[in-house]
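Re: beginner question about structure tokens

> Can someone show what the tokenized structure looks like for a real chain? I only ever see the sequence side.

Sure, here's an example I had lying around. Input first:
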Amino acid sequence: MAAPQQPAVAAGQPRVSTGSSFLRELAEVIVLAIILYFGISFAVQTVHVEGLSMYETLDDNDYLIADKIDYRLHPPQRGDIIILRPPTNNAVDFIKRVIALPGESLLIRDGSVYIDGHRLIEPYLPETWTIDNNYGPKTIPSNEYFVMGDNRNRSQDSRVFGPITRDRIDGRAWFRIWPIGQFGNIYDKKPTLETNVTVGSGALLSA
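And the corresponding structure tokens:
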């Protein structure tokens, strides 16, 4: 009578082993997913553009991917589109373009930007800049950056709250993911400095 019972015991063993294996694999998948989630969250973030201060480079309701590691490796560069927290409010994020770097002399006259006496060519501006189009001269302090929106007539930026410190920069906008028809590069137009000095250092100091 004992012999017929042996197959029943043997048949039950694989079911226990299979169940344990499934739970172990499920736990491994969950742990891996958590690691990937926090790893990706540390490296990149999704950015929802609200408003028109960066038009026409970026439009209202665009979605971007921003790189949060880039500036751990090197400082922001002129022309970078950055995600920042303004000095007056930690609760909101702004998206602006880096215009002047630490130690540079900045002058804005009648809608033209001068960096150390060289005029900055800005092909991304959507219209004639007429509002708050004079500033400085000012030497940008160490570890600070002067930022502006591309849509200068409709942007609250360093002309209002001054240069921002590097620790208030959270990341660099990388590429657009929405709308799908404009997926990809957002840096097809970049600022360049004229090689000839168009405003002398004396004018910068006395303006």
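Each token stands for a local structural state, so reading them left to right follows the chain. The helical segments are 6-43, 70-73, 158-161, 201-206.
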